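To whoever picks this up:

The parser on our side crashed when reading a file containing two proteins. I've narrowed it down to the boundary between the first structure block and the second sequence. Both blocks are reproduced below exactly, byte for byte. First block:
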Amino acid sequence: MSSRREESQDRAIVRIAAHLPDLIVYGDFSPERPSVDYFDGVLMFVDISGFTAMTEKFSTAMYMDRGAEQLVEILNHYISAIVEKVLIFGGDILKFAGDALLALWKVERRQLENIITVVIKCSLEIHGLFETQEAEEGLDVRVKIGLAAGHITMLVFGDEARNYFLVIGQAVEDVRLAQNMAQMNDVVLSPNCWQLCDRSMIEIERIPDQRAVKVNFLKPPSTFNFDEFFTKCMTFMNYYPSGDHKNLLRLACMLESDPELEMSLQKYVMESILKQIDDKQLRGYLSELRPVTIVFVNLVFKDQDKAEVIGSAIQDACVHISSVLRVFRGQINKVFMFDKGCSFLCVFGFPGEKAPDEVTHALESAVDIFDFCSQVHKIHTVSIGVASGIVFCGIVGHSVRHEYTVIGQKVNIAARMMMYYPGIVTCDSVTYNGSNLPAYFFKELPKKVMKGVADSGPVYQCLGLNEKVMFGMAYLICSRDEGCPLLGRDKEIKYFMCIMKEFLVSNCSRVLMYEGSSGYGKSQILMEIEYLAQGENHRTIAIALTKIGFHQNFYTIQILMANVLGLDACKHYKERQTNLQNKVKTLLDEKFYCLLNDIFHVQFPISREVSKMTTLKKQKQLEALFLKILEQTVKEERIIFIIDEGQFIDSASWAFMEKLIRTVPIFIIMSLSPFADTPCAAARTIMKNRNATYVTLGALQPKDIRNKVCLDLNVRCIPKELDTYLVEGSCGIPFYCEELLKNLDHHRVLVFQPMESEEKTNMTWNNLFKNFSRPTEELNYEERSEEVCTLASGVRLKNLSPPASLKAEEEITFSKIETPKKSEIFSENLSPEEIREKILSFFDVIITKMKMPEEDIIPLESCQCEEIVEMVIMPLAHHFLALGENNKALYYFLEITSAYLILGDNYMAHLYLKEGERLLKMLKDDTSWSHTFEAAAFYSLKGQVCFNMGQMVLAKKMLRKALRLLNRVFPYNLISLFLHTHVEKNRHFYYADQQAQESSPPGKRRLAQLYRQTACFSLLWQIYSLNYFFHHKYYSHLAAMMQVNTALETQDDFQIIKAYLDYALHHQLAGYQGVWFKQELMAMEQIFNLPLKGVGIEIVSYVADTLGYTKLLMGHLDLAIDLGSRAHKMWALLRNPNRHYIVLCWLSKSLFLKSRNKQLIQVLGWLWDLSVTEEHIFSKAFFYFVCLDIMLYSGFVYKTFEECLEFIRQNEDNRILKFQSGILLGLYSSVAICCGLGQGLSTSVGTAGSHSTTRRPAPSPVCHSAGVAGTCEPAFLKNIRYARLQDWDSFHEFSSRAKNLVPRRTPTALYYEGISRYMEGEVLYLQKQIEGQSENAQDSGVELLKSLESLVAQNTTGPVFYPRLYHLMAYACILMGDGQNCDLFLNTALQLSETQGNVLERCWLNMSKERWYSSSERTDDRWPQTLARLPSWEKVAAGEASAQDVQKNKFLMRVNILDNPF
């Protein structure tokens, strides 16, 4: 029975029902909204005192992490006891309202008398609970209870997304009044309840001047059996547990699954609760002390008694409130009747809903709601209170009946302001200060004594948020303190001073922009600049914008022109009108004066001409007038226009300023935060203007933070512990430093005392390094302060709770990196071309920002990974090995292995893994978590080395073993495969939802496991893609999905983005049309909101890099070049050679296939320089690989064959090349092809191998620079007629070396480049076999075709290789006399080349098509002579050889098809 109960309680419908009363769970309501229901019943209102004070105590606690847990434990200790009593006595908990609850006993009217007795008994027992319990945490928790009975009306209302319910009527009003009359531990009956009860059973006490009465105790007759009486009464209750369920507290615990009912009930529960509906998670996840903004809305009606009348008014108000909150990420938490009105408790800042400008949004919503509800018929008064601060947000109640609610002083303040200041929108001082709105939007109100609020602080009326030209009020208020210098911003001020000097002596405009996030001190810099800019012959105008101004057309220019025209000092519109008339009379015809009416709030008569103008024409006329005025003004005095918060400049003002700086010499200085969206075209143009300087503000240096603290505290020095705490905690951001200081002062951590002289200081060896930190420069102190700051005894700074403002900032920052909805970045109506342009433009903006001289973005020196490994990590590993600390030694050996894998050195990785394996065997008895994890890391790294070496069977085995140790199972059979796939799909939806809201990140141990798991899955899906068996694609798909899910769980930006890109590549290679595009967009959406510093900028570069590689692989060559070019710029700026060379390698391949030879040679030059500078062997090998390709296919020589061969000869035993699958395969195959081109090609082919004979034909010309505008036919077409001249001994030598590398298959473009060259050599050799009439020629041809077909069929073969492979298949077919398949393969290759824009392959294919079917006679053997005369790019560029000459050579390389010998 108990197991069945546990099973039922785990059902979703039961968990949802726990948040709702039986009145809703079992209700049968009309679908109309609003709907009304009438019944009789008894109401109990329980108010619990002490919880608000308790919340305040925990929210201001000095130390963090314990407050919310302790609070929820204490709250639910008391409240669950009350709920349990109510449920035992048959009650239904209607609502939890903060630290109060409302319960109902719904019965027929004739049963009210007996039920009232039951409810009184219940009330007295609730009081008894608290009499016997000691107060927790030093708080005296007591309750007072009001009871009422009679007619009750229930109202259900809402919109399509949410439903709400209310109980209204006289009984509801009575129970509230009865509770208000009660003192602590009292039970008060309303007058009607006293009339309806069995008075003989109750001993009461009259309340003076009231008809309500106070219950003392029950006085049943001696023969009265309460148990029998109670059992009889419960038969009147429809849903009281009985029979088999009599031991249940609530019948709703046994609800059966019912999708229709479940869907209906979900509409009554907040969406964030539905997503976390499992109670075991709810209390841990959602119960917390968090900074929020409370908006309390109260509606008082003209006719309070008629439910039908007020129902429609509440419905209209609710629909509008919901729509407004949805826009601004607020939520309605509760709706209830409160002091003769209906109240909506709205909250901004719930988990998953934190947003920048939360306070501003709350005020905007409040004003919007006020304006709408004031117009609703039957609503008499609308009152709104707004308060901001830390409150308890969490699940309150019992396991079977609970709700998500908010408790705290700020909730009380909002409610009291709403009631004590009726008919207006009010807010507290925290909201006022945090709104960042102009002061003229508010009016301070007289203070009132409000019940339950000791000190609310100043109360303000919000007058509305419609920006008007209130001249003089939008100016930047300069609060510069001459005694406090601006610290750490010398460089930024120097920029201004230099540019200002240039501006004053030149006749052109200047623009200076300071960009920085909130808190970096932008306004302080502008205040300093305004002070420094004062002088003769120029006027300074400084304004501060707000978010509201962004939505006001031309607002910034209005303020500028109002100052220029002297309107800011005018007190009346008539005075403004007179001033305007005098200023513009020589510039504007009088009939156009009325154009100035709206913009300057004047009243010139409207002329006929203006009335006929369009809005656009009026705007142009105004702009022309303003330009004339400014041109006149600057002749007399220069203008310096300072704008704070420039991101709020409206687009019309940006457009005007763009014209202004082109026509009038003006100096514009502005500060701005990073743009939330792409700035308008005019703003972008100004930023790119050659006279604009863009400065990104970085963090302050530690010495500047220290100096600032000493100045702010007015002390000589501070403790080193405090110095370290503030430097680390503030991250160099001035605002964070100030907030941390305020928090310390609030908790009385800082102690000030006179400074002792050095002679009196008791200095010893032990306290030598515990001395004070002093300012690094002499600062001006108020009255020469001689105090020092110390810390209160026993304080642990690192354990202090951070201030609420920084908690909110941290949460907002976290929310910015969430994956945005598609509509926010890539709207559904965007075409692929528009999306492409948007992505490329985004990368261009990043590159522009990176080019600005900012230390925050660009590292001071290049990556030195190898040096760090050899000089730091390796000595540490051997040090711990010598000490016998094998655990630590193992850790460092694994770190070394990981580093060498990043550097591409598989041999060294393998070497140190062997050391790790030896240590693992020694530590085999260690069963600790860390040892298990390190064993998993060992096997996963071993799997990665095997993967890189092309040993896929062993790699798969190692990776599976690593996953088992990481507690992650990968299926072995098909049944398990499909079950796992189903589970992972569900996990994917879950984690995708989690990503859209905020959840706690995994702990360090879990995170380490997840990172290692993603690495394993990333390799596994590629391994399974290589296999030919059809079911392996399902394993591959599952591994790719598991990588995404695991990455989402990490909440790490890079892991998520990498997983999305891998998932997209998997879908593209597997041929899932459309799916891959969505995955790539998700990766792009993820990076759009990344902070463009540090890791963020590297992630953006990685995305451009990876997308470029993917596009090359998929044959989108133009896009691959666009992305690769941008990735090259980014990695070059980041000075990361390990990523940079990879981009250049694949960019060169894209350019090669597009026959963009000029750009190709430039990229190869960069690659060569990088390989030489960094002594990077792999990039040098790739360079020579491309040089061989150029020689074979592009018709010119860049580096001679001798040089390429010499490189291979000297480096083929290099450990990096030898243990890297793909590069040597390509080099050997290319040389093998070259060896067959004739004796005139190579001087020393044989020296490349120890078993070759030496051959010394005539040397070919040496060329050090190359390139040609045209293309030439491929090698396999050139060699057919010249087998008798070819060096087949050397061909076999290099071909056999390549053949040994073919089995080392890896799913990489490098391997497929190499295998393509190898297959081309095999086709060439097939030609020789056919010419020599070999017995095995036909079998060889069949096997060759099979191999080519299998390559095309493989999921991991990128489509960019298809044209070449189909071309080879066509040639093999025609050699074997299969003309039909030859046509099919040739046309397929042509079609693919056309689609991909593969110019080089298309040229070869057209030549093949022309010549294979040509009837012309065979030509002489001219290939060796032609090869010897191939021009260099240097000659072509100098005009000594033309593209036409190279084109002519194609006809000298004519291919003749042999008669079919089969």
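<<boundary where parser fails>>
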Amino acid sequence: MADRTAPNYHLRLEWVYGYRGHQCRNNLYYTAAKEIVYFVAGVGVVYNTREHKQKFYLGHNDDIISLALHPEQVLVATGQVGKEPYICVWDSYTVQTVSILKDVHTHGIACLAFDVDGQCLVSVGLDSKNTMCVWDWRRGKVLATAPGHTDRIFDISWDLYQPSKLVSCGVKHIKFWSICGNALTPKRGVFGKTGDLQTILCLACARDEVTYSGALNGDIYVWKGINLARTVQGAHGSGIFSMNACEEGFATGGRDGCVRLWDLNFKPITVIDLRETDQGYKGLSVRSVCWRGDHILVGTQDSEIFEVVVHERNKPFLIMQGHCEGELWALAVHPTKPLAMTGSDDRSVRIWSLIDHALIARCNMEEPIRCAAVSTDGIHLALGMKDGSFTVLRVRDMTEVVHVKDRKEAIHELKYSPDGAHLAVGSNENSVDIYGVVQRYKKVGECVGSTSFITHMDWSTDSKYLQTNDGNGKRLLYKMPSGKEVTNKEEFKLVQWSTWTCSLGPEVNGIWPKYSDINDINSVDANFNNQVLVTADDYGLVKLFRYPCLKKGAKFKKYLGHSAHITNARWSHDYQWVITIGGADHSVFQWKFIPERKSKDALHIAPQETLTESHSEESDSDQSDVPEMDSEIEQETQLTYRRQVYKEDLPQLKEQCKEKQRASATKKRVSPPSSSVRLHFIHGYRGYDCRSNLFYTQTGEIVYHVAGVGVVYNRQQNTQRFYLGHDDDILCLAIHPLKDYVATGQVGRDSSIHIWDSEMLKTLSVLKGHHQYGVCAVDFSADGKRLASVGLDDNHTIVLWDWRKGEKQSAIRGSKDKIFVIKINPYMPEKLITAGIKHIKFWHKAGGGLIGRKGNMGKTETMMCAVYGWTEEMVFSGTSTGDICIWKDMYLIKTIKAHDGPVFSMHALEKGFVTGGKDGVVALWDDTFEHCLKTYAVKRAVLAPGSKGLLLEDNPSIRAISLGHGHILVGTKNGEILEVDKSGPITLLVQGHMEGEVWGLATHPHLPICATVSDDKTLRIWDLSPSHCMLAVRKLKKGGRCCCFSPDGKALAVGLNDGSFLIVNADTLEDLVSFHHRKDVISDIRFSPGAGKYLAVASCDSFVDIYNVMSSKRVGVCKGSQSYITHLDWDKRGKLLQVNTGAKEQLFFEAPRGKKQTIPVSETEKIDWSSWSCVLGPSCEGIWPVVSDVTEVTASSLSSDGKVLATGDDFGYVKLFRYPVKGKFGKFKRYVAHSTHVTNVRWTHDDALLVTAGGADTSLMIWTHEAEGHRDTRQCDSEESDIESENDGGYDSDVTRENEMNYTIKALSTNVRQMLGIKPHLQQKEPSVDERPPVSRALPQPEKLQTNNVGKKKRQIEDLVLELVFGYRGNDCRNNVHYLNEGADIIYHTAAVGIVFNLSTASQSFYTEHTDDILCLTINQHPKFPNVVATGQETLETCQSLHHLFMCGTP
């Protein structure tokens, strides 16, 4: 079988020909090191002209379109296009990323500018609002953002002399901005009479609020403040594209091809007309200028860069050139020399020297060029044109040999035969024409087998065959030179090809992804010598494959640089280089081909090289050599944690059910019970799908999680305390380095992370808004200030938080595969690692982003755990095969076999490590993993006498390990928490059921014990007294869903999932009898009261069987239910059965025969039931919530005194109702602890405890029942009911009115609301109770006042000044009048004005920066901030709603 790994070779970008001059301006600068920085395609280029060397910044993944240079001239900011575009700030010296800024803009980033001290960066987006954003770029934080303008913005600049002032300009506008707080406030420039309103293309700021700007007509507009002061007419012949300010003055460049220099007062110094110079040409247009000292850099529309020395201004140096605008498709390499030929839609053909990295010849043709080929002797160059003709030139002097036009459609491919005799020309007319070279290109043959345009062709080495690919994905073979098609498949296999550039055929199957029928690969070229293949595709990726590459989905190395589609790729004649050309970016890239180094050298690569190579990513497709996945890990990757409905959806669902609720609101609802419950103890620990989630706290208690609860367990007193802030499954837990705070992450649509205090159980911070579906890993930094988290979304997003402030610092897509662990480097909090399915990645923070590199390990392994070692670059990770990998930086140094099966958990000590694996062994290691110092096997034999339960099996899979207080703490997959003493004995502290739903629950008739049975195939007996432990356990053949004690407590009946049931001895759990009469799950089982003579067994087959316990015979069957049975209860006499079914029926059957009875509602209430666990019927109608179509009430239990009904439902709520719960929507007390559905609830025999079982969360929770007089000290557990009924004391009418006010307004395209009103005289009067008498008794005004304004002159528009405002907003606002200045003034608001009213002079002064109604006002009481006021307005852009802080002395 062919090798399916990626090839052992590299490409390294060596040179980029071109400069992006089209659609971009101001993108060319000198750096501090006198190098030139610019961009082309998706690459930032730093070009050293003295040494003629280029360095590349490859941090973008799409076209770069904007660039700004930091004032210190070392750092560069570049912005790109794309759906989620980002800004990179990078170092022009090391070409490494310093910061990434993202998540604000869409479409692209049009302009960038640094402020004068380089602390802030402003960016303008390409979205419809042209959003402006000011960044603290080092931290990646947004300081302010605002819509920029409705039309395109072309340039933006900071005022270098006034802090926090900006100027932006663009289509028909210029705006002057000021930053105040986090608001950007614009004032539009006033053109007035001085100049025409027109498009401004560029600007520069000067002293004293003067701004110079270049306009579309070639004038320079000079602004003072926001007013146009004067214009410099005709500075350029047409549009001024670029303006650059430096110490000496200003440089401008325009479409007329001139560069002008001006002094600091904008008096002209000199003009340089580039069109008139030697290198100039008609139509040259300047897009960018940079003036430094006596050098001027000029970038042109046609991708050239000139350098002009001022005193020799008529001799500019042409230091870089590329193709002009238009697609670039044609590429050919010279057969014997290091030359490449390219031809483009700009109609030029160019020859490049690959050694000198320079353009050596250029020739303009009549037509756009689409393909090129060089004859085998290197003498002729053939060019295929867009109009169907082709031209042959002599390479030596670019003179024409022949021009042939036989076709009307474009020629897309042409090739000379190896013997040089023929030229094959493939056109878009689906045919290939063969021409004789020696016969002056006479047509000698034609190939007409294709049904679509020709895309690729190759000759055989003997020049007797030609293969073609066409647009339909067909591969055909022709005899040469006649052009006869060969249909025999065998003949195909015998041909030897002289080149391979086809994208179809068995040798290149592997370049196509699996299961794809797309044709996005534009070009292929095989290097037969090194057996490697290069491909170029529509996504801008250059890939290297092995050749031949037979199986689909082969591995590759990929390289970014070109942004959009790459049209062609070719090896140079001696295979030293690969040349690729970009279609839309019309750039030429030259890549050096490098054989793979030995891994030893890999540690000593120059930083420049590692950077470029780190962008060669291995492919994502699976390798053939990945070992089989471990069954446990396999199970875990299948878990999705997605819910149909999340608790977060409840408010919305309730909103939808409002109507139902209103209908029933007239009836009086039953009040909630007076007694309450409090969570007391939980049996369970989540080990089956979580790892490393168990720690010692500062005080020696143990913290872990189960269901939706964070548990703090005191092992001396055997008590638990709970953190109940979560409302769904907790999936991960991390402890602060000081061992006092805990972070837990949960499942949820917008899932949250809580940081809480393990001593006080108080929430310190809640982080949400960045993870979907759930948070699967968290970790604190060593200083405890940062928190890293990983989400469960498809990209497994990684977020770095400043958790105290609750703000996101950086975020990035983590990996397509599941991530199991995240760790922050303890020595350098900027670095972190993530590990998971088939990968380990090393990340470092850069501003608002993270940059990640995969660890190189040869073959891909799944990592289950990872820790940092004793130095900042050492990382140790545990694999799914039982190895420990030791990493330095990102290179694998060695692996050590540690466990049989996966290593699930590891913990770093001061001097060494401890690991735990699926093999149930805990191992202690020295600090280099050389020696295993000690192993502990978790076995029943070594269980210490003080254990709180029993081990289910020897060597359970270990999922969590932690050390402290002289012990090793171990969590197992089976839900046990064990403490291993260093000397050997093991104490079991807590345990619960294993993976699988827990449904069966029964409490003992007179002892404080209960029994549970679960899908994990165990039956367990638990002690509910303070010793809280598991008393007995028995493994069953099948899982079970129900159980019940006999009335004397000696026997226990258990219903299993295969339709059988057992009766066992309640003490020893040994079988007494068993039956198997049904096929489906046994859903409920009940002994009759009294002597327990009968046993009723309900199944999902819709029958209830009644057995006589003494004679062990079936004596009756209850038939007639339409669906599966869910609940059953006996009456006190043991004669009547009540049954609930899945079709929501309430049925009655007579025992023991099972005859169906119809009992009228009035009679059912009189029946005395021996137990109540049903959920249907009039006496419990009120337990069904408003949203009952979404959630089921799964279980209920009535206390023995008949007063309190406890229920469990699918939302994980435990609720208490006052019994009977008549009428709809009874009131209740509600408790959250279980995560998903509560499957069963039971009171103990004396009502002292309530026991609840959570289905998938596997936990068994014990709640203490607190009677009426007992005040619930911790309200946080209990929530009152869903709906406040109107008759609960209700609202005062004013309060109701204000409560229902809605300030939302229909949005316009702009963010000013529509001011719709009806003029007073047109209003229909509605007499209302408290209507004020009309003030004016005057007649209504006539509808239109007609005035004669024929002879009036138009007056100048004057400014209006606000003098007096009548009114105060009191109708819907409160606490909005305050004294100021020791009572001399009062401040209040009305409409959109803040008013300061001086009591002595009765004069008003105003704050008028708001754009809409002010709704609230407060003043700062602190002595440090006298007279500071905050007002909040109503607005659509919520981000702007509260930004006005003003000083009242000067409103």
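After patching the parser it read the second block fine. The mean pLDDT is 84. The longest helix spans residues 607-614.
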